[in-house]
Write a structure and sequence with these properties.
With about 60 residues, the chain is mainly α. It has helices at about 1-15, 20-35. Helix 1 runs antiparallel to helix 2.
């Protein structure tokens, strides 16, 4: 949710589109960030830079290899 909110507010600001929805999502992002201060958004391994926390396949999922 935090990742989506960040992506949406960034895209809306860049495009200048949906200003009221962007403001609402920005407020939601602030509220959720305050509620979940230790939340970390992992990076997909193919897009990660050194030092990024990586996304993992949850235990119990079938092997995708």
């Amino acid at each position: 949710m935090l990742t989506w909110a960040a992506s949406f507010t960034d895209a809306a600001a860049r495009c200048g589109a949906l200003p009221r929805l962007g403001a609402a999502v920005s407020a939601l992002r602030s509220l959720l960030s305050a509620r979940w201060p230790d939340a970390v958004t992992p990076a997909y391994p193919a897009l990660a830079v050194p030092g990024d926390p990586l996304t993992r396949i949850p235990d119990g999922w079938p092997d995708q290899g």
